[in-house]
Design goal:
The complex is a heterodimer. Chain A contains no helices and 9 strands. By secondary structure, chain A is mostly beta strands. Helix content of chain B is 0%, strand content 47%. Chain B contains no helices and 10 strands. Chain B has a 6-stranded mixed β-sheet with strand order 2-10-9-4-5-6, with no helix packed on it. A 4-stranded antiparallel β-sheet of chain B has the order 1-3-8-7, with no helix packed on it. The chains are: A mainly beta, B mainly beta.
Chain lengths: 109, 120
Amino acid sequence: QSALTQPPSASGSPGQSVTISCTGSSSDVGGYDYVSWYQQHPGEAPKLMIYDVTKRPSGVPDRFSGAKSGNTASLTVSGLQAEDEADYYCSSYAGSSWVFGGGTKLTVL
Amino acid sequence: EVQLVESGGGLVQPGGSLRVSCAASGFTLSGYWMHWVRQAPGKGLVWVSRISSGGSSTTYADSVKGRFTVSRDNDKNTLYLQMNSLRAEDTAVYYCLRGGPYSNSCPDYWGQGTLVTVSS
């Protein structure tokens, strides 16, 4: 049950694209297509942005996209907007449990 | 509208016990796996536990195994987390999450959380 590895921070200017990585192992990210991404603004509960690696829930802008290669998943935010500034967490099914990444603080410059 | 409302958090002494609850509405609780996730102040998210839709299967993180018990009452649309032998490191906001119809369904909705503080 080791946490997934995310960079602590990422940044980009409005309109730019930024990609956040999430590295696990063959026991979690690499073994299943059940990776999700959550956005958390300060003082708020997390919100689902991507599930099953690439799927977007209804209401999430298509500026958000997910991908996976081997043991690493990624979240790309295109056309950055001020409201995208938040903490982002990845999560993966791990067979009989779930595991989260340590979180990435996304700053919109 | 899916709603999850946690309650029961508070201040408890080390070694003490506390039960937090999660009232679900806007969906049929009996059709979904449910999860608990916690977040210590200023820290990241940590998965704690999950329970199957009918309540027969439960799983725990190693850090809480043997101390925490997850349960549910589908007739009352409520999820519970019984926490015993609490430690300072259990201090966190506890969130309940809706899973899906399958054990590997990515959790989607979150409650607003309830703060548990373990301190003397």
